[in-house]
């Protein structure tokens, strides 16, 4: 069993494995009181006035208590982050990292701006960890890119992947969780989907092109196409055969 888990972990792509490891280590560290959540949560005043810039990152790593909700989000993080990185972003690690960076920036911006708007500022002030929202963003992007896959919710009913975010949002409401967290993830996910998939088809321009300095951080892995066995390929034309 342990060997199977180790093999499964090693086979994860780099971004998924790194994020999942950081999230588990951070959450366990807080549960054991090795790390204090008060040093991790998003606090604009501490970021701006006291230069605690790490909070812009650490608030995406802590998933609250080690309970069923934690396991639920770890499953979705491991599953949909892995599916995106291995399929939609296969051989494009830098683009996948840029997607997560874009989502984290949008979520942070929404919370900061929302905290300055009267009547809703108190609601946004309660959102101090955005880890669940970023996970939900990945679920939303995956559902948009794979809308016709058939799925089942707890064996109760079936639906296509296009409705997965709404099914999960309804489930969160039923169990008494805050809908704001999931809605923020859906907003960030839709912003990425529109700018990356819809807008380029409409205008021919791609506003979310990954910057060169981010591409330089990752060694792009070429996608290798396997040659079918026992299949003969036609020889090259005569004019392309190099002379002896």
UniProtKB/TrEMBL annotation:
InterPro entries: DER1 (IPR007599), Rhomboid-like_sf (IPR035952). It is found in: Endoplasmic reticulum membrane. One of its GO terms (biological process) is proteolysis involved in protein catabolic process. Keywords: Endoplasmic reticulum, Membrane, Transmembrane, Transmembrane helix. Its main location: endoplasmic reticulum. It is a multi-pass membrane protein. It comes from the Eukaryota. The chain crosses the membrane at residues 19-41, 96-117, 123-141, 148-168, 174-195. One of its GO terms (cellular component) is endoplasmic reticulum membrane. May be involved in the degradation process of specific misfolded endoplasmic reticulum (ER) luminal proteins. May be involved in the degradation of misfolded endoplasmic reticulum (ER) luminal proteins. Belongs to the derlin family. This is Derlin.
